[in-house]
Every structure is written in structure tokens, then in C-alpha cells.
Amino acid sequence: MAFGCKTNLQALIDGPTTSVPRQQFAYRHLILTPYTISKLPRGAGSGAIKKALEKAGVLEKWESSGWAKKLAARQVRKVRRSVLHSRERNSFQNSNDFERFQVQLAKRSRRDVVRKAYVKEKKASA
Length: 126
Prior knowledge:
This protein is of the alpha+beta class. It is 59% helix and 13% strand. The longest helix has 29 residues, at 97-125.
């Protein structure tokens, strides 16, 4: 959450609910949202900012926004993908040359079955 202007190029940010420490941050790296806190005193501390956030309901508004839901879904997909890749990596690293060859043949036969079924459906619909 950005809450102050340090210079014309930097904002003073603080995230009391997200454990982001108070720091200067360049405006060009910020993406502003329409959720604001009105009447926040200049130089307010983290405690005052946290109370104002809760009072204004900014976090609830953010969590119900489409942007936040999209970010959460992206994070879930990322976690699932990393778990799947780690399983594949472990099984692939622990296999010998002949097992990898068998996987190659299985993929080839599956590809052929899918291709033949597709051609059969295409002929039937034409």
C-alpha cells in the first residue's frame, strides 16, 4: 500500500498487513488501484495505517475484485504446475535409458491412436 510522496519520482510504501516494510518505491514500478483511504494523516505509522485499512474495508474490497481473484488463480496454477513438474523430474532422473525409451514408444503409440481416431471422426463428419 502506497501512502506518501517522498519525491516526485518515489512514493513511501508500507504494508502492515502483508509484512512489507516501510520503504521508498519508484512510481514507475507501482500499479495503483482505485481503493483508497481518506483522511490519512501525513507521516502516519504502521499501526495507524492498519487501523485505517480495516476501517475503510480496503482489503475486503481488494479480495472481492476480479484482479485479486485472477492473481489467486494464477498462484494456484503455479503451485500445481511446480508439484507436477517436480514429480516428473524425479521419475525422469531416476529412470535408466531403456525406461526412457519405453516412455518414448508409449507416447508415440498414444499419438498414433489419437491421430487415427481424429481422422476417423473427420471422415465420418464429412
